[in-house]
């Protein structure tokens, strides 16, 4: 659509540029807040992954014992299962993020008299691992949603900063130049017209009026 080079459009473009400049800082602030939230979420996810790795290291020495015992591995691992999990949503800088409000792991009854002593350690580790894996899944969702939110807000900031504001400023410049040229042209035309009028109104030479 062609840009109308007039005072009405000039006012519209100036108003738009003013609005864009006023809105940009709040968008940029929101981007910074989302980036900070994303950084925190990534750190939390990495902390959970480190905890999972530690428990894996704790369980690893027990693997050879599983092969030497008469107790079936399936039976031992089935002693632990995830029970009630309550995942809700919280609002973080306008983004809905899942958060674990309640997490319970259930341990089946087993006789400590007929099971090896190391089974208690294994069950404890499995219990923590089960809870950590649930939290890790939720943390992945938080990171994913925040990454998406950061991308969207960054696109909007770039739109205002690199497209809308420069475009409005360029339109203002074009209109101002055009109107200035028009004003100068009008002045020149006025002077020319005035000069012609003065020439027309000038009295004839007196010598021509002698009979």
UniProtKB/TrEMBL annotation:
Task: Show the ranges annotated as biased composition (Acidic residues).
Answer: 202-211
Read off the InterPro entries from this record. Answer: V_ATPase_D
Question: TM segments?
Answer: none
Does the UniProt entry include the keyword Ligase? no
Q: Per UniProt, which keywords does this protein have?
A: Ion transport, Transport
Instruction: Show the segment(s) annotated as Disordered.
Output: 191-211
The lineage's top-level taxon is Bacteria
**One GO molecular-function entry:** proton-transporting ATPase activity, rotational mechanism
State the family it belongs to. Answer: Belongs to the V-ATPase D subunit family.
Which protein are we looking at? V-type ATP synthase subunit D
Which organism encodes this protein? Roseiconus nitratireducens
């Amino acid at each position: 659509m062609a840009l109308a080079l007039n005072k009405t459009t000039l006012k519209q473009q100036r108003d738009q540029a003013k609005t864009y400049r006023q809105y940009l800082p709040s968008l940029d602030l929101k981007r910074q807040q989302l980036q900070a939230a994303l950084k925190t979420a990534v750190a939390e996810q990495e902390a959970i992954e480190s905890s999972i790795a530690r428990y894996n290291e704790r369980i690893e020495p027990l693997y050879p014992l599983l092969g030497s015992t008469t107790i079936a591995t399936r039976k031992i691992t089935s002693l632990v299962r995830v029970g009630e999990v309550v995942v809700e949503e919280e609002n973080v800088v306008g983004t809905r993020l899942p958060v674990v409000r309640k997490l319970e792991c259930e341990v089946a009854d087993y006789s400590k008299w007929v099971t090896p002593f190391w089974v208690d350690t294994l069950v404890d580790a499995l219990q923590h691992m089960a809870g950590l894996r649930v939290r890790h899944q939720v943390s992945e969702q938080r990171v994913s949603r925040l990454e998406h939110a950061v991308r969207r807000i960054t696109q909007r900031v770039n739109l205002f900063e690199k497209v809308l504001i420069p475009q409005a400023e360029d339109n203002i410049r074009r209109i101002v130049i055009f109107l200035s040229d028009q004003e100068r042209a009008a002045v020149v035309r006025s002077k020319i017209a005035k000069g012609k009028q003065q020439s027309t109104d000038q009295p004839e030479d007196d010598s021509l009026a002698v009979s």
